[in-house]
Amino acid sequence: MKVLAAMSGGVDSAVAAARAVDAGHDVVGVHLALSRMPGTLRTGSRGCCTIEDSRDAWRACDVLGIPYYVWDFSERFKEDVVDDFIAEYAAGRTPNPCMRCNERIKFAALLEKAIALGFDAVCTGHYAKVIEDADGNRELHRAADWAKDQSYVLGVLTHEQLKHSLFPLAETPSKAEVREEAERRGLSVANKPDSHDICFIPDGDTRGWLEERIEMSEGEIVDQSGTSVGKHPGAHAFTVGQRKGLKLGRPAPDGKPRFVLEIRPKENKVVVGPEALLAVDRLRGIKISWAGLPLAEAFSGEAFECMVQVRAHADPVAARASLARVESGAGSAADELVVDLVEPLRGVAPGQTMVLYRGTRVLGQATIDSARSLDWDPAAVS
């Protein structure tokens, strides 16, 4: 099989490529240049896609004896990931750029180009597993090492994309084993720190980064009844669940801290309230996709049992989900995923991604359009 190995410059993608070579595939390495002005060096574990990462990817390919290329996807990355991130925050939502990158860059743009060039599959260093059912249909499952499992950020993959996806680290019991293998193979990235945070905000200051790109204006902070309790410098700089930095002028009647419950960019308001109201019971999702063939219940109108996960490293919780057809105006309609949680989740924000599971299998995902506590009606805020 002809395989294109996506080489980030990290240890996981290097070992994944090495295992693809060992499996007898015809492997070519490619590093994605996602910035027109990449930094020269990484800052510890912050950031990625630097010149240093590109060189590390090249060294790994040299050790493995496979061809190496750099593909410029910077314009597509800016449009589909960075600009989307800014637009989502401007709309008062909290996006997950890693989901968008996997959806639109690594398993859309990259895979499309790979197939056009005659490759059979794209290989990455993600910790996830693809399994074929009795009929040969592919399903996405959690990796053997649940602590490193990355099936959540791959929940956007479609049935067609799974046909061309290769995850050689699927059965690896621990990250330590991957590093030991890299050391044995003579790969210089064996002890390179994992990258984290948002790759295009390497200093981790998301608020400061957004303030340079979204027009901020002072507005009101109100409590859950609509009473003004303070001022803010710009609603877009806040996230649901935030406690610090509110600088409220009026304390809560019970003296307890208040948290951000909702952001209303059109009104330029931030709604705050007690911690208890961060616990949400019902999620509504849009932009739905299915990882593999969808469950039959999904289109029958029946509710189905599942587990739902709303963050990459969060524990999944039990839920009942169903599809609802919602009129969106001008005679058009769209599907909405309604998820009722068996136990409430804390501090879920619109814009986050919810991924549905059954056992280890990823069923699909949706972007959260609303997350509400059944104990509080947001309409009470005027």
TrEMBL record:
Q: What reaction gets catalysed by this protein?
A: S-sulfanyl-L-cysteinyl-[protein] + uridine(34) in tRNA + AH2 + ATP = 2-thiouridine(34) in tRNA + L-cysteinyl-[protein] + A + AMP + diphosphate + H(+)
* UniProt cross-references to InterPro entries, sorted A to Z: MnmA-like, MnmA-like_C, MnmA-like_central, MnmA-like_central_sf, Rossmann-like_a/b/a_fold
Q: What class of enzyme is it?
A: transferase
The record lists ATP as bound by A6, M7, S8, G9, G10, V11, D12, S13, L32, G125
Question: Where does the tRNA-specific 2-thiouridylase MnmA-like central domain lie?
Answer: 209-273
Signal in keyword set:
no
What does the record give under GO molecular function? tRNA-uridine 2-sulfurtransferase activity
The entry's localization annotation reads:
Cytoplasm
The domain of life is Bacteria
Region Interaction with tRNA, residue ranges? 148-150
Q: Where is the active site?
A: C101, C199
- Keyword annotations: ATP-binding, Cytoplasm, Disulfide bond, Nucleotide-binding, RNA-binding, Transferase, tRNA processing, tRNA-binding
Cited PANTHER family: MITOCHONDRIAL TRNA-SPECIFIC 2-THIOURIDYLASE 1, TRNA 5-METHYLAMINOMETHYL-2-THIOURIDYLATE -METHYLTRANSFERASE
Q: Which family does it belong to?
A: Belongs to the MnmA/TRMU family.
What is this protein's function? Answer: Catalyzes the 2-thiolation of uridine at the wobble position (U34) of tRNA, leading to the formation of s(2)U34.
**Protein name per UniProt:** tRNA-specific 2-thiouridylase MnmA
